[in-house]
Amino acid sequence: MNKSGETDLLLVGPSGVWVVEVKNRRVELSAHRNHWHFQKFDNYGNVAGKGLAIDGRGRNWGKQASEVAESLAWWLSHNQVDLPVRTAVVLVHPKASVKSGVNPSVDILTANRSDLIEAMNSDPTIFAPDVRDRVAQLVRRDHAHHNQQT
């Protein structure tokens, strides 16, 4: 199904499908369109390092999630399930933060897991249980297929 890489979480619920990239890093993240960078801090609050927030393929974390979501949306549509696939990047380290996010190419960019839950719960779009079940069935079938090949 997905040649764009993997995702950390795929959430399927009443408000739709979410591709969630999870980062457990003690960083302060800034995301400005396609330029994502971070600063690491030591225990005393001093900058201990800086870098680009990219994966092993050179994609920023938002693009990493967006490419997977685009691929998944296409694949679901190809299987007669047309619905939006939303994206999130969530920093889960207790001392992580998002300094700024300007058009970060994802629906949610946060260091607070509650923001993701709130976004999912506040979406007025409700997908019927049979649609959610069909998405889950398709994903499970695809994973089983790929597991047999390895």
Poorly predicted spans: none
Number of strands: 8
How many helical stretches? 3
Indicate the proportion of strand residues.
25-35%
Measured as a percent range, the helix fraction is 25-40%
What's the pLDDT, averaged over the residues?
A: 89
Oligomer: single chain
- The topology string of helices and strands comes to EEEEEHEEEHH
- Order of strands, widest sheet: 1-2-6-8
How would you sum up the major sheet? 4 strands, mixed
The coarse silhouette is globular
Distance between the termini: 15 Å
Structural class: alpha/beta
Domain count: the total is 1
Structural commentary:
It contains three helices and eight strands; from the N terminus they run E-E-E-E-E-H-E-E-E-H-H. The longest helix has 21 residues, at 129-149. The protein is 33% helix and 32% strand. The two termini are 15 Å apart. A hairpin with a 5-residue loop joins strand 4 (35-41) and strand 5. With 150 residues, it is of the alpha/beta class. It has a four-stranded mixed beta sheet with strand order 1-2-6-8, with helices on both faces. A four-stranded mixed beta sheet has the order 5-4-3-7, with no helix packed on it. The mean pLDDT is 89. The chain has helices spanning 61-78, 113-122, 129-149, and strands at 9-13, 16-23, 27-32, 35-41, 47-52, 85-91, 97-102, 108-110. It has one domain (9-149).
